[in-house]
Amino acid sequence: MSLAHANNAATFIANEERTNWHDDTLWFIRSKRDNAAASLPEWEQLREIASTIKAHTLDHLETYLVEFEANATKNGVQVHWANDAAEHNAIVLNILNAANIKQMVKSKSMLTEECHLNQYLQANGIAVVDTDLGERIVQLRNEIPSHIVLPAIHLKKQDVSETFHQHLQSQKDNNDPTYLTRVARAHLREHFFASKVALTGVNFAVASTGSIVVCTNEGNADLGVHTADIHIASMGIEKLIPKAEHLSTFLRLLARSATGQPITTYSSHFTKPQAGKQMHVIIVNNKRTEQLAQDDFRSSLKCIRCAACFNTCPVYRRSGGHSYHTAIAGPIGSILSPNIDMKANADLPFASTLCGSCTNVCPVKIDIHNQLWKWRQRIVQEGYDATSKKLAMKGMSVVLANPTWYRLTGKLGRWMIKYFPSLANNPYLNIWAKQRNMPKVPDASFREWYLKNRKKV
Amino acid sequence: MSAREQILEAVTRANANRNRTALPAFSYTAIQYRDVVAQFTEVLERIGAAVTIVDSLQVVKQWLQALPVGKTSVYIQPNLMYSFDTAYLYQVDVAAMHGTIAVAENGAIWLPESNMGNRMLPFSTQQLVLIITQQDIVHNMQEAYQYIDTSAEGYGVFIAGPSKTADIEQSLVIGAHGPIAMQVFIIK
Amino acid sequence: MRVQLFIPCYVDQFFPNVAIASLELLEKLGCEVVYPLHQTCCGQPMANSGYAHLASACDSNFAANFNGADYIVCPSGSCTLHIKEHLHISDTTLQHNIRKHVYELNEFIVDVLGVKKIKASFPYKVGYHASCHGQRGLHLSSMSELMVPAFSKPAMLLQSVEGLSIYYPKRADECCGFGGTFCVTEEAVSVKMGVDRLQEHIANGVTYITGNDMSCLMHLQGIIDKQSLPLQTIHIAEILNKTEALCR
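ok -> structure tokens follow
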């Protein structure tokens, strides 16, 4: 798959019917978010408060991390620290090996996607079963999730039916979602009951109590953890919030922003391991401290992973999550991923018209579109932009700085389009002209009109 | 340097010389409803739970006793220690437990570990029955967190309806991995 | 009141009628309008492509044309926003004054001149396109994402035009897909976004689509012309300028 979002997007859009379906489906989720937001008169105040709590937490993160660790440890939780993905993965493997366990169930954790945990464990002889229905579907298909909340949003029920028929022996061509969900329920129940280790993500980590909170609709995180002997919870350093009472703000915003529900079915607060069982929390950096150190980009760490920005983004809806070739797609992914690997993700901040819709649906008020703009400056300055574009821009900067050059170039351009329309409208020479006509050429520029009709010399 | 030291040092460095943001004042009015019971019931029914208002706990127990003969059902007394066989837990059809706080804005009920009998039970049962009293219903989450200490016990969960998923082409299916049905009894 | 007219580069070159309409409209509203003759471009195409660091000469040329004392009025939300947020010159006082005095045409008419009605006549069904930078950047109108009371300065002016019926697309403020160099670097998505916008306006049966940014309209018109679609774009200045006499 090409690393250029634009190429991937063009491939996606070539199937117009599917693009329309994908776009309509996600727009509908955006509308549900709007209705949910409108139902709370205090919505905009909640966003402001959530944003400030997160900004405060990041500003004092060193204190809250230590406080969380102390309280969790007091509760009998084993706290681990991992500076990068490799360390995180090794810690997970060590826990499994220490208990001599070869299989694990996992509920949704975008952090583990970022760390490529599944592949690492599989390479080390551990079977991992993703238990969120959307994630299990993509796992069986050997794909990555295309959306952080709705992993299989890019698939139609026929696709799911084919996958389940192939891997789970479900009835051929039975596309009924209820039937397919029941098939997955029975299949995953076997895995829940057989697995002694369960890994979850963390939506919020409460410093004052040492607790972690996991939000799901399916009940897979809880069922996995409570049927297991060992609970591993992986979290990025930015998941901290200071106090339990702050959860009231975040839990009111999270599901409404994500899917338009007032709350997820389960908001599970894990504080102590069950008697006789183990609970581990792995606190992961993986370059988040580098993001934190940049004034321009540190506020992106406020993200609570609701994906409202995905659902509202006109580009995401028409290009699909896989076009972004990272664990986290969409607008927030485009301001997080260049920090992790600038070269591989240099195209992402440009996959946007900077319309600003994302910034205004974000429950924690991250100025996403401004950060996209700033990443563009950084990427160009680091030399990751195409040479041809560099040259064109250099040329443009010279022409636009000089009124005479500007007027000459403009006149030449108009003349070319007027007298050589076939060249100007040639889609091979002019990308604009592939699906659009060039503008009609006026007889004179405004300046020329002004000089003739208005300027008294 | 351990990973812990590296991370804390990097965070400290990133935060040095900053104007640090203070915690905000919670100076807003969270939503209030004219009729919390009606709001709570409406939201819960919309998310796929059945809601019944009853006069007493006795009515609930009678309901449990009247369940069809083949069904394995269990009533959990709050704050009691239970010792369940895992195999039994996998078979339970109906499990009834007491919630402590209920939230009108979203239909959620707080279920602390001490009311579950076993942490697995609220999830492994096919149908979950939650029992609350009318006075347990508060308007919104802000109020709810004032009444509960979510870390007083090792585990607790806000439960809002039966488990569900819309992961297959956005079609809502009630009953994913947790209970496929939920019945809430509100004792007057 | 003296106003310096700031005309986007592509409007100067390809859509002089928009500039002429802006000039005439401001004069009818009682302004003395001057057009600084050596302006070129605000620099946005470079800056949005990651080349803000190459814009200093362009910025200097801009500042050499505008004195920062008079109002600077521009018939484009995105160019106005760019100057407001990204003009960088060594004379920081002038920079501050220019940024303070630059206004998009509609917001100038409503907020500075205090005009809420235009006595113009345009008896057509007109689709409203909420250009993103003007809306979300300059707050020319409220946006669907925020839970705030609805308002729209451009729509208010349009609603006062005689015979004009205003129609909103179903997705009232979805981006048209132009996005500067995005229109060619992500050509497939750009055009698809434009096509989708147009479908919604066609479904409303409008004769015209209007907005405050010619870049959006140029992109939509390009698709309209290629596909021979049954509607036309027109800049809001041209509609508001269709007056004989004027009253406040």
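Chain A has a mean pLDDT of 96.
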